[in-house]
Specification:
The complex is a heterodimer of chains A (359) and B (294). Chain A has 359 residues and is mainly alpha-helical. Helix content of chain A is 69%, strand content 5%. Chain A has 16 helices and five strands. In chain A, strand 1 and strand 2 form a beta hairpin. The radius of gyration of chain B is 19 Å and the shape is globular. Chain B has a two-stranded antiparallel sheet with strand order 1-4. A two-stranded antiparallel sheet of chain B has the order 2-3. Chain B is built from eleven helices and four strands; from the N terminus they run H-H-H-H-E-E-E-H-H-H-H-E-H-H-H. In chain B, strand 2 and strand 3 form a beta hairpin. The termini of chain B are far apart. The chains are: A mainly alpha (359), B mainly alpha (294). At the A-B interface, helix 7, helix 13, helix 15 and helix 16 of A face helix 4, helix 9 and helix 11 of B.
Chain lengths: 359, 294
């Protein structure tokens, strides 16, 4: 017993903080699960649990690119889109083949993650040659292209196999018994709803595990060295392209995982500006910046608060998004303005810790 | 014949993008920030013009003037309240997110005031346009006016930035804020002036855009805003001529792509061209290559 106490005492400060992060997730899950099973929260809030998990995963994974790698990415929703559609496609095809929901979901998850990772590599190689705002706009462009492409794809299946078209359903030339799987702008309907709050939390824990371990590894330190000073990192022999691509791809893959969760939470999957377009990418970025760039726990908390805020303001109906916008601006000013930081250091104790500069 | 008329329509849409992109690029050049709320100022400008015409019964010319004045005031106010406190923040992302917040704010204010319904914008240009080649091709008045207005704005702006005192101050501030201040330039004033000009241009663009595509919702400005942002980067962000060229090219690519390839893929095509351009020339068509120092 004493040994164990000693161990905890001697534990690295980082490790302790990371365990707290995992702990928060698990405790939050247990509390919410109890509340749900005793029926003490509204069904509205209950329905919000899986989206909350999705946003947390997206925020943590984007933080890897924005906070740890130090590059601004505005196309994060594109990877989510790739993961969502590939996995939904798989699940719909396999709905009758694989009866076991869990097994099917795990396979779908792996496929979604793999597809998103491939997109991450394909997009990362050209994009990471660029710098700063140019990189940001190209990631935005790729995100929009992915969303647009999904909207013009028609895939159907009949006795002769798969049919593919970019025009319309008629162009698929299917047999009469054929089934349309991907219906262009109407997307994919009838995906099995396999996502649960539990799976979402497990995915959050996996995401946290991957990101936190990466950050504290040799590779992670190399990535942060690139962020802090690219030229210095290069001069000590760090392979810039390799590590940048590594961070970017892992981030894309995790976003793909969030996409899988998203796809299996809804019965109809369509791609529009609000779920897979730049609006979504920007929303995720808001979580990351508000939670503190590079701060994993911060992005989780910001994701939760900013997702729940509009719901809690639902009573104010028309005014809720307005209030959301005002709160966002005020929080940004309070958190980041040099004058406000100065004031906080002077009068409030919790403002003592100085923010680390990322750029 | 149809190719030429597509080309002219593309030029017209491109002119609108160019006018918006000018605002983006000037603000970026001087404040080094991506003003995500710029697109929504377009929407506000269009609403002001529409309301001045339908509610207040002003003639089109006065309505445009009202929109320009309204947006200028709005732009300066936004800069003063939301962006200025963050000018020296430790991360450049802070002001970017605040700009996104302002964008949400404007959209939701418009939603509250004007409702979510699409309003039909009555064109400010009553001229029917010209018919060429015995009626085989007709060019609408809006199209011609848009292109002409864009060229005038471009010429005036280049002259202003190159020749006038405030224009020189702008260039100095964009080059080096600290040094400009030491030379006695009012940096805050210059930045406010840039926002004022950018917002005034956005109002003009909003009126022209809605005259050509007469449906107005609180989200009207978002997509043109993003496209103009792309145009500004395309031409080399920070460069006025670049924004002009980028805007025109983007408009032409979009209209031709919509006509000949696929109407749904037009946006993807625009973005694809942007990616290719940036991969070949990482700082845009007219962008300056800045050498990194160790």
């Amino acid at each position: 017993m004493r040994d164990r106490m000693k161990k905890i005492k001697n534990m690295n400060k980082n490790t302790k903080s990371n365990l707290i992060t995992y702990g928060i997730v698990i405790v939050a899950f247990l509390v919410m699960q109890t509340l749900i099973s005793t029926g003490s929260i509204s069904s509205l809030l209950e329905g919000l649990m899986v989206p909350l998990c999705i946003y947390i995963i997206l925020a943590v994974s984007l933080n890897l690119v924005v906070g740890i790698l130090g590059e601004l990415s505005l196309g994060h929703a594109g990877f989510m889109c790739a993961g969502a559609f590939s996995s939904a496609f798989f699940s719909k095809c396999m709905k009758d083949v694989i009866e076991n929901g869990t097994l099917r979901f795990i396979l779908a998850l792996l496929i979604g993650i793999a597809v998103a990772a491939v997109f991450g590599i394909i997009i990362g190689i050209p994009v990471l040659r660029l710098k700063g705002d140019y990189l940001a706009i190209v990631t935005l462009a790729f995100g929009e292209i992915i969303k647009n492409l999904v909207n013009v794809v028609f895939i159907g299946k009949d006795a002769n196999g798969f049919h593919f078209s970019t025009k319309d359903v008629m162009d698929l030339n299917m047999e009469l018994d054929g089934e349309v799987i991907v219906n262009g702008p109407q997307g994919i309907t009838g995906t099995p709803q396999d996502s649960t709050f539990f799976i979402g939390v497990v995915l959050i824990l996996i995401t946290l595990f991957i990101v936190i371990n990466l950050v504290n590894s040799r590779d992670g330190r190399a990535i942060m060295a690139i962020r802090d000073n690219r030229i210095a990192a290069e001069s000590v022999g760090i392979n810039i392209t390799k590590y940048k691509l590594m961070a970017f791809t892992i981030s894309a893959a995790l976003a793909g995982g969030a996409g899988v969760l998203y796809a299996h939470n809804l019965s109809t999957l369509t791609a529009n500006t609000n779920n897979f377009g730049y609006n979504m990418s920007i929303n995720i970025l808001v979580f990351v910046v508000l939670g503190g760039i590079g701060n994993i726990r911060g992005s989780m908390i910001a994701a939760v608060i900013l997702t729940l805020l509009p719901e809690m303001l639902r009573g104010l109906s028309d005014y809720r998004m307005l209030i959301y916008a005002i709160v966002l601006i005020l929080m940004m000013l309070f958190n980041w303005a040099p004058k406000s930081i100065e004031w906080r250091e002077k009068y409030l104790s919790f403002g003592k810790k100085k923010k680390e500069a990322v750029k | 014949m149809s190719f030429i008329s597509y080309l002219i329509n593309g030029l017209s849409l491109g002119s609108v993008y160019a006018i918006i992109a000018l605002g983006y690029t000037m603000v970026y050049g001087i404040a080094k920030m991506l003003n995500f709320a710029h697109g929504d100022i377009i929407m506000v400008g269009a609403y002001i013009a529409l309301m001045s015409m339908t509610q207040a019964g002003l003639p089109p010319f006065a309505a445009v003037l009202a929109a320009v004045v309204g947006c200028t005031v709005l732009g300066v106010l936004i800069e003063r309240i939301a962006y200025k406190p963050l000018r020296n923040a430790s991360s450049s992302l802070a002001v970017l997110i605040t700009a996104i917040g302002v964008s949400y704010l404007l959209q939701n204010l418009a939603l509250l005031i004007f409702g979510a319904n699409t309003q039909t914008f009555s064109s400010v240009i009553e001229w029917k346009g010209v018919t060429l080649a015995d009626g085989a091709m007709s060019i609408s008045g809006v199209t011609i006016v848009t292109i002409v207005v864009c060229i005038i704005i471009m010429a005036v702006l280049v002259t202003f930035v190159q020749k006038s005192k405030p224009g020189q101050a702008m260039r100095a501030v964009s080059e080096d804020k600290g040094a400009a201040q030491l030379m006695g330039i009012n940096v805050n004033g210059t930045i406010a002036l840039t926002f004022a000009i950018g917002s005034a241009l956005a109002a003009v663009a909003g009126v022209l855009l809605c005259s050509a595509y007469p449906s107005l919702t609180p989200y009207t400005g978002a997509m043109p805003g993003i496209k103009a942002f792309v145009a500004a980067v395309f031409g080399g962000i920070g460069s006025i001529q670049g924004a002009f060229i980028g805007g025109l090219l983007l408009g032409i690519i979009e209209i031709l792509g919509r006509a000949y390839i696929s109407s749904q893929m037009a946006d993807a095509l625009v973005f694809a061209v942007l990616i290719i351009v940036l991969l070949v020339k990482p700082t845009g068509i007219l962008g300056k290559q800045i050498q990194e120092k160790v």
